[in-house]
Design goal:
The structure is a single chain. This protein has 226 residues and is mostly helical. It folds into three domains: 1-64; 69-147, no CATH class; 148-226. 85% of the residues lie in helices and 0% in strands. The chain contains eleven helices and no strands. The chain is globular, with a radius of gyration of 18 Å.
Length: 226
């Protein structure tokens, strides 16, 4: 039995390592490679019945679905993960699932649903990590922008960017900066928004966050057309 347990533990570590590789590939905007890594990790977690890691891998795949425009798939997977994490009382994982679900709802123009889900994620993070607190607040601000309250969102996001920067939470800071630029454009401050997109693209590309750089560049082009 001890040998079986050790073997399962080894497989779990391998799965976690592959899942981590997928995260790097995802941030580098290599979505095909990231999907392959996440699927490999998922297969390992299914084999050893590692439930928590299994849901995390499904969430990672759902993130790719969102980037590739399959919002309904993201909604379905993140809802399932959210319920499982809620049952397990895994606060940070629950918040992550809620944030992803809120963004999937926003992508489908279901603003009220997105606001409710983001608010719940923000409430959950009161006992979670600082990174997730800022991430959930960013998602909440994104729903404000979508609901026509871009000026309110802008003010909140400026503080969140500052908080993330002080805490050296680079990925969280970049997400908040992206949301801030979008809020500025929607608030009628196109020049400020475009400048924010440009500086974010440069900073994120320099630090290897190519997915954020891609999003910033694409959003800047849309802002220029507007």
């Amino acid at each position: 039995m001890e040998q079986i347990g050790t073997a399962a533990g080894d497989q779990e570590m391998i799965g976690v390592a592959i899942r981590s590789l997928g995260s790097i590939q995802f941030e580098q905007h290599d979505l095909a490679a990231a999907r392959k890594s996440y699927e490999q990790a998922l297969t390992i977690f299914e084999k050893i019945n590692a439930t928590a890691f299994l849901q995390d891998a499904n969430m990672a795949l759902a993130s790719i679905d969102l980037e590739e425009g399959r919002q309904s798939d993201t909604e379905r997977e993140s809802r399932t993960a959210l319920e499982e994490f809620r049952k397990a009382k895994n606060v940070d994982a629950q918040a992550n699932a809620g944030i992803l679900l809120a963004r999937a709802m926003l992508a489908q123009h279901k603003i009220e649903d997105a606001q409710s889900i983001a608010a719940d994620a923000l409430r959950v993070t009161s006992t979670g990590s600082r990174a997730n607190q800022i991430a959930a607040a960013t998602a909440m601000a994104e729903t404000q922008t979508a609901a026509g309250k871009a000026a309110d969102a802008e003010n909140r996001l400026k503080q969140l960017v500052n908080d993330a920067h002080k805490a050296s939470l680079v990925p969280v800071e970049f997400d908040a900066r992206l949301a801030l630029a979008e809020a500025e454009v929607k608030a009628g401050k196109s020049s400020a928004g475009r400048a924010q997109f440009a500086s974010l693209e440069q900073d994120s590309r320099t630090k290897g966050f190519l997915l954020v750089a891609h999003k910033a560049a694409a959003a800047a082009k849309l802002a220029t057309r507007d």
